[in-house]
Amino acid sequence: MADRCSRCLYTADHPLGMTFQDGVCLGCITHEEKTTLDWSARRALLEETLRAHSRNSRAYDCVVPVVGDAEDYFTLETVLSMGMSPLVVCVNDMFRNDIGWHNLHNLITRFDVDSLVFSPDLVVYRELVRNSLRKFDHVLLPFLQLHTSFPVHIALQRSIPLVVWGQNQAVEQVGKFSCTDEVEMSRWYRKENDLFGVDLKTLIGNGAGVRDRNLNFYRYPEPAALHARSVRGIYLSNYIPWDPLVQNNGALRHGFLPQRQSGTFDPYERAGSSVYYGLHDLLKRKRIGYRKVEDHLTREIRHGRLTRSQAQSLASRYSCSRIDIRPFFDWLGVTESGYRWFVDHRLAVVSASIGDGGSGACDTAISLPSSVAELLMEGAEPSRSFIPFGKGLRI
Amino acid sequence: MRIGSVVLLQRGVCVQSIHWSLFRPLGGLQTVMDELEQFGCDEVTIIRPVRKVDAFPDFQSDIAVLRSLKTMTPVAFGGGIRSVKHLDALAGVPIERLVLSSAFVNRDERLVEQAIRRFGRQSIQCLLPILRTGDRLQLLNCDTGGQLALSDLDFDFIDAFANEVIVYDCANEGARQRCDLSLIDAIPIDNARLVLSGGVGHGTSAQALDHRIASILIDNKTLHAEYSIERYRHG
Q: How many C-beta atoms surround the C-beta of residue A196 within 10 A?
């Protein structure tokens, strides 16, 4: 059985699971649907679904969960273009830099929508992040728990019948489903794909210094309650031929600020995060053997903007970039000796990728094929990182 | 009528099979079972999708996953049970029913008798993977990878040794609302002993109820939406 796709960069070790057919991964096979499905019919199906949930008498037709990412601009623009009245719900991950706060507040004001930004108890959140790092080599699991449950709680509490998510990453990355399966949000989907099998009980285990009563919104609502209130969640990428680089480029006209990254060419995805291409990317390398740039490169191979050999070459170029992880440990309140211990004992296998506060970029400039470069824009540099609460706009 | 689900187990993790040829990853078995239990699934049939070659260590490692399963939902298991050694490996595994396919297709009387001796006749299910090509109904032999005419099958043997027969519509497996209910007309066994699977949709349950079928098994789709089984139950 194949353990590496002959078309893209993915291997059998993908954290969402992977199968192959004749040496080609299911992600690549499913991607072919982008040229074979009748997308106008699928868009009509989406419009029908949204229309069924649109009620003029109700304040909100749907909840749109956001993080302030470029993808959220596309999602929100699409929902609004179909006449929906959305409530935008955001969970503060405490890791935003000034670009991240700008992008979030610009999204809300630009599209002139009602919004709810939830900031979790910082003491509890930090303890969960510490626990997540200690047990799973992952710093975003507590955020992911909240991001995938809080908007659903809001929908349930306010009887908003629909939650509209953007990309179904299990389809886009590994082809776990066909778009025609129209897979919906569910507790199972969340645990298996959004949380990589780590639910709250597993995340906490024993030894975490948090009380059960402080974890309400980290838990997904009871499926029976969602069923009783007919709350559903859909993914737009099941109805629209998803092309993140093109879509995210479109967010620029709405004032979205891309961020320059040393570890990838994509300045859009997760722009404004202080950890996503920092410690998170380093830990991803440790856990599953590759960095985020390989997801981006695979995506571009599938969209025909890169060849596999170009992508392999770019992957090796970007792999030499170095990551400054010290600011994260300052945020976590770790002492210098604690930081040293962690680097020596827990990050030894990826120590070559740890930098010391410089730009982190490789010594020589990396040139990209024009098919990709024409969709990129020079990203900005953040002036401040790890801003727990911020205003991204001057009003 | 029971409403259950088919779950495919391949190398220790669940996969979805489409048209008997394409496998999509699904996830961990325990997570899948936890949700099916929450949905009120009446039974779960766990199948190892074996096509021709199957190594015994692979069988053993899948059994280890099955053995560690924690669930209150009745479980049927099958796929790759080709010898008494395989039956012995299943000793103590918490399953309610045993699903045999090749043993019935190849008329392996000794293996079926040994299975009955260990699990009881009431627990034996015969899986018939059927492929309709025009007017022809072909049976897929998982052991050899070949096909034979459904009419060549020894239904007296099946009637005598299997408690229930799972009629599996291979052409429509993984599809939505496509299950070919007319396949049961070709099975000369009382409908009350038939289980239908492959492309089962929301509307299939009402039709199956009309035909007094014992059970329908939803393939792949069960986890595609929250509480999906309710929609099938009231389809």
A: 15
Superfamily of structural domain A37-238: HUPs (3.40.50.620)
| B223–chain A Cβ distance below 8 A for any pair | yes
Q: For chain A, give every domain's residue range.
A: 1-36, 37-238, 260-361
For chain B positions 166-195, those within 8 Å of chain A (CB to CB) are 176
Residue with tokens 């273009």: A81
Interval B45-79: pLDDT, tens: 999 998 878 899 999 999 999 999 999 999 999 99
Q: Is A306 on the interface with B (CB under 8 A)?
A: no
Contact A77, A41 (CB under 8 A): no
Contacts of A16 in chain B (CB under 8 A): 25
Q: Does B132 score more than 60 pLDDT?
A: yes
> Between the CA atoms of A64, B221, A168 and A86, what dihedral angle is there, to the nearest 10 degrees?
-10
CA of A26 vs chain B CAs: smallest distance (Å): 7
> Closest by alpha carbon to A354, among A322, A315, A328?
A322
- Which ipTM score applies to this complex? 0.87
User: CB distance from B224 to chain A under 8 Å?
Assistant: yes
User: Cα(A371)–Cα(A369) distance, rounded to whole angstroms?
Assistant: 5
Q: How do residues A62-88 score in pLDDT, each as one tens digit?
A: 999 999 999 999 999 999 999 999 999
pLDDT attached to residue A298: 98
Q: Which domains are seen in chain B, by residue range? A: 2-233 (3.20.20.70)
- Using 70 as the pLDDT threshold, list the residues of chain A that sit under it: 1-2, 56-57, 357-363, 394-395
Asked whether B112 and B100 are in contact (CB, 8 A), the reply is: yes
Q: Which of A19, A26, A192 sits opposite B31 (nearest CB)?
A: A192
Query: A79 vs A43, A49, A232, A365, B178, CA distance in Å?
Result: 12, 11, 15, 39, 32
Q: CA dihedral in degrees (A183, A184, A188, A189; nearest 10)?
A: 70
Q: Does A171 touch chain B (CB under 8 A)?
A: no
Distance from CA of A23 to the nearest CA of B (A): 13
User: How many other CB atoms are found less than 10 A from the CB of residue B91?
Assistant: 8
